Amino acid sequence: MTPRATRVLVLNSGSSSVKYQLLDMADSSRLAVGLVERIGEESSRLVHTPLVSGPGGKRERTGGIADHTAALEAVAAELAHDGLGLDSPELAAIGHRVVHGGLKFSAPTVVDDAVLAEIERLVPVAPLHNPANLTGIRTAQRLRPDLPQVAVFDTAFHTTMPEHAARYAIDTATADAHRIRRYGFHGTSHAYVSRRTAELLGKDPSEVNVIVLHLGNGASASAVEGGRCVDTSMGLTPLEGLVMGTRSGDIDPAVTFHLKRVAGMSVDEIDELLNKKSGLVGLCGDNDMREIRRRVEEGDERARLAFDVYIHRLKKYIGAYTAVLGRVDAVAFTAGVGENAAAVREAAVAGLENLGLAVDAERNTVRSDEPRVISPDGARVVVAVVPTDEELEIARQTFALVERTDDDASPALRTSIA
Ligand code: ADP
What we know:
The chain is of the alpha/beta class.
């Protein structure tokens, strides 16, 4: 008997890297995880960790990975070595993280030529990410042409934002001609974390309003009402919103005119300044919150100011989204900083007792990989730490789609393109 196909390979293809995980959706377990980095360089490297029982742990190989095709072939060879090859009948689909899905993709979508063309059409609004994501999909298609390739979009969860939250107050004709609006990113994480938070509260997602604070190197907040996103802090690009590791977040757009006209910077230089040399790194030279906290403890003034600017912005968004939602049931911290930095969580809600927010000092310092409540018993708003898992969410959405497509054999389900 042919085994049931329950495995999903999740690929996150960047311009010079591919991160991957193979999961078995029968029990949501991980079978292998790995990373190919510096693709095309002499120092290219693959690190592969099989998680199935058997001999051997992490394996590495260096050099000789010239392009994405070579990268995926190397990944396929490592998986085959562990008896998990891409030719296995147990592999149900490959799920791809795609950063920008514009307005057309509000759900995970089985890739066909029309879908590829639409992702390509969105390259001008995601010039760094979508081309790499497309390369990953095309390479995977060549390796397994018969297998469903599913695109899971970072923007999809935010397509429920009402028009008044998504629109910039600029000339409508110009905005429409160039598809300028707020799209939001990190949607897979906001979807996963808001659902897990509802579970933590013992409620259905439709019953709860949650503010999700995804604080990694990139950072974004979202207001989720009854399971649907109604506002998020990133916009046309991931530059808007919170102070991030290297991005400024919200800024007066006239700063850019000033930098061009008065400082004589080119548009590319301004782009680089705001995306790569701003945020925490711009304020104090470090973007790692661990290092910043260490410096703050030592009395470093620049690190203190960077921390305070970061927290001030975070508080403003908590306040804004409390107003947007009207009633807040939970605030969930997630991603590298949100899951690990107790000092950030404490500072972010300090003084917000009038909004029903507080953290219990002891609960806040507990370290765990599990979702957990850190507010005191009886608090009006539950403050929680809810570890994100974007790969599991991509695998879950991918598997749900191909399972449904198999059962229904309905061409309408093959794509959700509007
Ligand atoms: P991304 O996926 O955006 O690259 P992550 O969600 O992995 O980012 O978060 C990375 C960030 O998490 C690091 O830059 C660091 O600032 C922060 N971080 C990780 N561990 C800790 C920790 N123990 N304490 C404070 N911050 C941490």
